[in-house]
Amino acid sequence: MRAAPRGFSGRLSVVGPTLFSMTDKSGNSVTGMTTTAALRGAVETYWAAAEARDWGAFGATLAEDVVYELPQTRERIRGKERYLRFNEEYPGDWHVRVERIVADAEGRQAAARTGFTVTGEQEGEPDEELDAIHFFTFDEAGLITGVTDFWPESYEPPAGREHLVERY
Q1: How many domains would you assign to the chain?
Q2: Which pLDDT score, from 0 to 100, does residue 33 have?
Q3: Domain coverage including residue 111
Q4: CA distances from 132 to 4, 59, 163 (A)
Q5: pLDDT tens digits, residue range 60-93?
Q6: Containing H/E element for 81?
Q7: Do 71 and 118 sit in the same domain of this protein?
Q8: Which H or E element spans position 14?
Q9: CA distance 86 to 65
Q10: Which pTM does this prediction carry?
Q11: Quick count: other Cβ atoms within 10 Å of Cβ 127?
Q12: Buried (b) or exposed (e) across 61-94, using 16+ Cβ within 10 A?
């Protein structure tokens, strides 16, 4: 049993992966609240399923009307079936490392920072290391309704600030 939100007196029980149900003192049900930990868990499940290439589990995290956007290439994919296919057909051997997840239950949103290793396509070609930032939105059932991915490219910093920064 989880702790009820501050100021609430009643009974609290888990309904699904991201929702809980509350019953007030009169026995009236109060549903539809999403916890921060549950949103974080949904994003963790999304990435674990992607890494495992478990497209059934991956799809279970998505709403039917999910929208995926890549602002840098101005691409948009609408719908669960098309987004699943996009991921299933993505070329190459890649692996993801989740570095950080931040979730906001009140706004039903989360963000993740990940690192990807993409294996070179030709023998002897070095692996490519990529960083990415992902923004997620959720519906009241805790399913992902939106994913916006940013894939920033590394670059050399401008000269003149070496005395202020360290490189990693």
Answers
A1: 2
A2: 52
A3: 35-150
A4: 35, 21, 28
A5: 999 999 999 999 999 999 999 999 999 999 888 9
A6: helix 80-88
A7: yes
A8: strand 10-14
A9: 15
A10: 0.76
A11: 12
A12: bbbeebbbbeeeeeeebeebeebbeebeeeeeee
